[in-house]
Amino acid sequence: MNHSLSKHNLFTYLAGQANPLERQLVEEWLKNPDNAETFHGWLLEWEMRSLQFLPDQEAAFDKLTQRLDQVEAPEAVENPVSMRHSPVQLWGWKPFLVAATVLIVLGLALSPLRNRFLYQTYQTTAGQEQTIRLEDGTDVNLKPNSSLRVPRFGFQNDVRQVQLTGEGRFSVTHKPDHQRFVVKTSDQFQVEVLGTEFTVYARKQRTNVVLDRGKIRVDYKTATKEQQVMMKPGEMVMLSQQGTIQLRKLAPVKALTAQQEHLFLFRNTSLWEVCYLIGEHFGVNVEITDDSLAHRTISGNFRARTGNELLELLTATSRLRVDSTENTLLLKDN
């Protein structure tokens, strides 16, 4: 890394207070690709210190793209001295142009880089799970075959928003300023946290939300209007591919009397829900990566003292099999 430029020089430049020599020093330093990582770190620190500056990253990129589209290639000139001022014209005085200039110098295209620059994506494969701690302290257990997109430079606005595809279990940290936490699965469906612990399953055929603790609000759109559902602990919301929504209690995992202990009662219960309940009751991690299988329902009474006993009964009666990975059991069609 080339640290010939001081942090103070860059901060002065970003604040629009640099003199011509300081601007030239910064612009020359930014032309070196080796300085890109240092620049991004210092830029983030400057944004955190400058409380009056609340960057709208999406708007900045949109504005930048419009400006670049309007720029025409410069005509050849006889007097090369006049070109010395072009860096100043390019940079101007707006801080959001700084990052863009680095990309231009590196010769990178803005369109495919947009999401990679603004967001970080975590991805898991079949049989793999990942535990992620977000910058606000929220913990996410990302399930197999899932992805989570989060802002690369932290939650800057009045809402902490992430994008989930697949399945994830969230334990959300409450902020003193009551900053909202939202999990989006599509333009038609999102979960806003009013509590703390919940699981979201968002795949092609159906979206499920299970609330463990606290309170959450589910926002969804139909063909005609936007609607909301408030959830309480122990409830499950299911949104079908056709846009219909159902709110109900989770299936019972344990009977109330001693004579019926270890009896599990399932009535048109989805296999995804069964696996969720096995994890909650026995601590056995069972996953389903096949979307159609996850929403297959079963009915019956099953007596089992362990998670493995219950799985053996399910596989024997429902033509299923269980494959073992390092940390997860995968439920599949036999």
TrEMBL record:
The chain crosses the membrane at residues 90-110. Residues 264-328 form the Protein FecR C-terminal domain. Keywords: Membrane, Transmembrane, Transmembrane helix. The keyword Transmembrane helix applies. GO terms for molecular function: sigma factor antagonist activity. It holds the Pfam family FecR_C. The keyword Membrane applies. InterPro entries: FecR, FecR_C, Ferrdict_sens_TM. It comes from the Bacteria. Residues 121-216 form the FecR protein domain. Coiled coil: none annotated. PANTHER family: PERIPLASMIC SIGNAL SENSOR AND SIGMA FACTOR ACTIVATOR FECR-RELATED, PROTEIN FECR. This is DUF4974 domain-containing protein.
